[in-house]
C-alpha cells in the first residue's frame, strides 16, 4: 500500500466505523466531540442548538455544509445531550443515498417512529446526504416527516441546502456549516498530537491545516496516517501522505506560465501529476485557493481566475484533466506576449 493510499484507507475505515486491528483505533471516532460545547468552531450554531435543547423545544433541523466539518458530530451530540446514556436507542442514523432507495428509508423511519419511547417525548432521526434524494423522494420524505412530527425530530444533513425542496426547508431550522477556520483545525490537530504523544513540527501542523482546507476529518485522518510513517510528523510527511502540492510548487508553476515559460510550467505540472500523484481537480482547487497570494497584477489574477473557472467546469463535465491544465498554463503563457 502506498502512503497516499494509507490516508484513503483511514478515510474508508472511518466510513465503516470499525477497525478490527488491535492498537489502531480510528482517531476521528476516538476524538469525535461528545458534547456540543466540545465542537470546534461553529460557536453561534452550538449556542442556538443548546438553547433549543435547554428549552425542550427542538425543531426539525437542516445542516448544510461541506464534508468533515461537524454536521454528524453535532447531531450525535444533540442526541447525547437530550437522552444521556440512552441516546443510541433514541437516535436513528440513515443515509439517504442508501442504494435500496427511499422506500427502505421510509420503512425504517416508520418502524423506528412507531416503537415505544422509554419516557421521552420524541426520537431523533438523522438523515445524512439528504440532497442525494430526487425531488419526488424528498416529497415522500416530507409527508413522512409530517406523519410522524408528533413524536420524531428530523435532522437532515446535506452539502447544498439549495438541493432540498422548499417545503422541507421551510419546516426546518436551517444551519449552515462553513469550512472550519485554520485556527480551529490547528487547535484540534495540535491537541490530538499532544494526547497521542506525537512529535508534530510547526511546519507539519501548517501543512496539515493547509491540506485539510477546513475539513477536520481530513486533518485528523492525515495526522494519523502520517504518524504511522515515522516518529516525527513534519511537512514532508504530511505533503507525501496527503498527495498535496506545497503552495510554493503551485506558485512556481503558475509564475513560470505567467512569465511565458510554458515548457517549465508544463514540466512542473507533470511532476505534480506524476511524482506527487495529484488529481487534476485538486491542482485546480489549490490554484483557486491561492490566486490572491501569488505575486500577480490584478489583471493577471483576474485572467487566472477566469481560466481556472473554465478548466474546473470542463473537468467536472468529464474533459481530460491534463489537457485542461496544460491549456490553462498555455493561455497564461500566451497572455504574457500581449
Ligand atoms: N467542528 C468539529 N470539531 C471537532 N471535531 C470535528 C469537527 N468537525 C469534524 N470533526 C471531526 O471530524 C470527524 C468527522 O466529522 P463529521 O462526521 O461531523 O463530519 P460531517 O460534517 O458530518 O461530514 P459528512 O458530510 O461527510 O458526513 C468527527 O468524527 C470529528 O472527529
UniProtKB/TrEMBL annotation:
CDD domains given in the database record: AAA (cd00009), HLD_clamp_RFC (cd18140)
GO molecular function list: ATP binding; DNA clamp loader activity
Biased composition regions of type Acidic residues, renumbered to the chain: 1-17
SUPFAM superfamilies given in the database record: P-loop containing nucleoside triphosphate hydrolases (SSF52540), post-AAA+ oligomerization domain-like (SSF48019)
Domain AAA+ ATPase span(s) in chain numbering: 57-181
Quaternary context: Heteromultimer composed of small subunits (RfcS) and large subunits (RfcL).
Keywords: ATP-binding, DNA replication, Nucleotide-binding
HAMAP family on file: RfcS
Pfam families (UniProt xref): AAA, Rep_fac_C
Similarity-based family: Belongs to the activator 1 small subunits family. RfcS subfamily.
GO BP terms, alphabetized: DNA replication
SMART domains, per database record: AAA
Region (Disordered): 1-24
Family annotation (NCBIfam families): PRK00440.1 (NF001679)
Function noted in UniProt: Part of the RFC clamp loader complex which loads the PCNA sliding clamp onto DNA.
Keyword ATP-binding applies: yes
Positions bound to ATP: 65-72
Protein name: Replication factor C small subunit
Keyword Hydrolase: no
Amino acid at each position: 500500500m502506498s502512503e497516499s493510499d494509507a490516508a484513503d484507507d483511514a478515510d474508508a475505515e472511518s466510513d465503516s466505523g470499525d477497525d478490527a486491528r488491535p492498537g489502531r483505533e480510528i482517531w476521528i471516532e476516538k476524538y469525535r466531540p461528545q458534547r456540543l460545547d466540545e465542537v470546534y468552531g461553529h460557536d453561534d450554531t452550538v449556542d442556538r442548538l443548546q438553547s433549543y435543547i435547554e428549552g425542550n423545544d427542538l425543531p426539525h433541523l437542516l445542516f448544510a455544509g461541506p464534508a468533515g466539518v461537524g454536521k454528524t458530530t453535532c447531531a450525535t451530540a444533540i442526541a447525547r445531550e437530550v437522552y444521556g446514556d440512552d441516546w443510541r436507542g433514541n437516535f436513528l442514523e440513515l443515509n439517504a443515498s442508501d442504494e435500496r432507495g427511499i422506500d427502505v428509508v421510509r420503512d425504517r423511519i416508520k418502524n423506528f417512529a412507531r416503537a415505544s419511547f422509554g419516557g421521552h417525548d420524541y426520537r431523533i432521526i438523522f438523515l445524512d446526504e439528504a440532497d442525494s434524494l430526487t425531488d419526488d423522494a424528498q416529497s415522500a420524505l416530507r409527508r413522512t416527516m409530517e406523519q410522524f412530527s408528533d413524536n420524531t425530530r428530523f435532522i437532515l444533513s446535506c452539502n447544498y441546502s439549495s438541493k432540498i425542496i422548499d417545503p422541507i426547508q421551510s419546516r426546518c431550522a436551517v444551519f449552515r456549516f462553513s469550512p472550519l477556520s485554520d485556527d480551529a483545525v490547528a487547535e484540534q490537530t495540535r491537541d490530538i498530537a499532544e494526547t497521542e504523544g506525537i512529535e508534530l513540527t510547526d511546519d507539519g501542523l501548517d501543512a496539515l491545516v493547509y491540506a485539510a482546507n477546513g475539513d477536520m476529518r481530513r486533518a485528523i485522518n492525515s495526522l494519523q496516517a502520517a504518524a504511522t510513517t515515522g516518529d516525527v510528523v513534519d511537512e514532508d510527511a504530511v505533503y507525501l501522505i496527503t498527495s498535496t502540492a506545497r503552495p510554493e510548487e503551485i506558485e512556481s508553476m503558475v509564475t513560470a506560465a505567467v512569465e511565458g515559460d510554458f515548457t517549465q510550467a508544463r514540466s512542473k505540472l507533470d511532476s505534480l501529476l506524476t511524482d506527487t500523484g495529484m488529481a487534476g481537480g485538486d491542482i485546480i482547487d489549490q490554484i483557486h485557493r491561492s490566486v490572491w497570494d501569488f505575486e500577480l497584477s490584478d489583471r493577471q489574477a483576474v485572467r487566472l481566475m477566469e481560466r481556472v473557472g473554465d478548466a474546473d467546469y470542463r473537468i467536472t463535465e468529464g474533459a481530460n484533466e491534463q489537457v485542461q491544465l496544460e491549456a490553462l498554463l498555455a493561455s497564461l503563457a500566451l497572455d504574457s506576449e500581449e
